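Researcher: Hi, I'm a grad student and pretty new to this. My advisor asked me to get structures for two proteins we've been looking at. I'm not sure of the right format, so I'll just paste the first sequence and hope you can take it from there.
Model: That works fine. Here's the first sequence with its structure tokens right after it:
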Amino acid sequence: MLIWLVELADHFQFFNLFRYITFRTGAALFTSALVVFLFGPMMISSLRVRQGKGQPIRADGPQTHFKKAGTPTMGGLMILAGIVVSALLWADLSNVYVVATLLVTLGFGAIGFYDDYLKVTKQTDKGFSGKARLGLEFLIAGIAVYFMMGSALHSGAQGSTFGSSITFPFVKDFMIDLGIFFVLFGGFVIVAAGNAVNLTDGLDGLAIVPVMIAAASFGVIAYLTGNAVFSNYLQIHFVPGTGELAVLLGAVIGAGLGFLWFNAPPAAIFMGDTGSLALGGLIGSVAVATKHEIVMAIIGGLFVMETLSVIIQVGYFKMTGRRVFLMAPIHHHFEKLGWTESQVVIRFWIIAVGLAMLGLSTLKLR
């Protein structure tokens, strides 16, 4: 919204600042953090009154989790409020990538909200039907990918098939054109990212910090891929318009910092599916837009690890009747081994930082 102030730059030099993505990214970060800080306590109080018993605790979970009974969920509403307000103020809403990413974020957030609502009202850890939920997620993600693909195709920066192609780290010239099937591939990436973050959100602060780390990493990637000079220097694919996504990712970091203030142990509120699905979908959308889907598996390796632990556990149990892990997702396995919650969380944060550095290194290794 405020980007229109650039038009006043001819008369007032100060307004030239609004032209720069870096300035608006910093402003979006500050704005979203302020929104969450200011309205967070009021929202937490409201959710606590409305939800009563709060988020249900898994009966087969670690014993230490039962003391968290009564903690309200749907804290993702705080995060989404910060992101949306910042986006409306600082992002270029005529940018296809920004609109498509917001569509996924709000769409996934709505699905997560309904899931949380069912869990709270029915006091069960079983919410929305899995098949129906995935179907809606794929529909929303597919629509977003279709528009992002069309924007990349029409930009003509890398050829007529660039928008529908998969790119690979470490090499620039090798791509695989999927045609219209790229919608399915991109949709899968976004849905997988959303559900991977959702699986990771099981301990106080465990999901939000790796999300902020991934957002910061993709903020750098989005800015570089959207800049012709930097992308040419680094020999990465130039995707016009994706630089604007850095503003949105700045808003994610700010909202995440604000939420962490209230989610730090002992948590006053849980993110819930409302936040985890939305944030995962957002990161996945940026990865698709910037053509760094494979790099996302490195930067978001912690989320991949959590997802694989569930797949392995379920698959192995169905085949043999035995378990590989003491409990899945894997963060609960380490709790069962005797690690304290803070040990699991901080060590997983360290892993997330290392993987982010590894993912960013692919920008120069060509």
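Researcher: Oh nice, that was easy. Here's the second one.
Model: And its structure:
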Amino acid sequence: MIKDIAKETRTRMERVIEDFRHKLATVRTGRASTSLLDNITVDYYGTQMPLNQVATIHAPEASMLTVQPFDPSLINDIEKALRSSELGINPSNDGKLIRIPIPPLTEERRKQMVKIVHEMAEDHKTAVRNIRRDSNDKLKKALKEKTISEDDEKGGLDEVQKQTDQYVAKVGDLSKHKEDEILKV
């Protein structure tokens, strides 16, 4: 029973780490990355669709992204969605292809990005702690129902705490790495 709870806890915490990695990829650094546009949605005949499902996105050079819609009639909608995003980009199109120059980040914008990373890290640390709470509750309930002994409960709580510390540290490491990447000029 305790091994099952520990395994489930580890699995859930791994999912939090993967989600954090995915979200970090969408935060802009000094280089052009196709994952910058992961959160952009486009109105496609009345439905909000992710940009990567209605167009091909490329990073031909370090300071340029290109977006080529599968349906050329969408080019203006895509350009509008890109302009209204919080990325601070200025796309231009030639009728077939949208070019997005990625300007270097200003010091002020870098600090804003670092704040965003810190907020995301804190949200994911909270998610890890919530998983710990759920697992601890399961252990206490098992003790109350007398399906495990007090010693087993203590060992289980210690194991869950070790996992929590480990995954909170992973979130911190990923956050620090991304912060260094953003601040590097």
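Researcher: Is there anything I should tell my advisor about the second?
Model: You could mention this: The helical segments are 2-25, 75-84, 107-144, 150-183.
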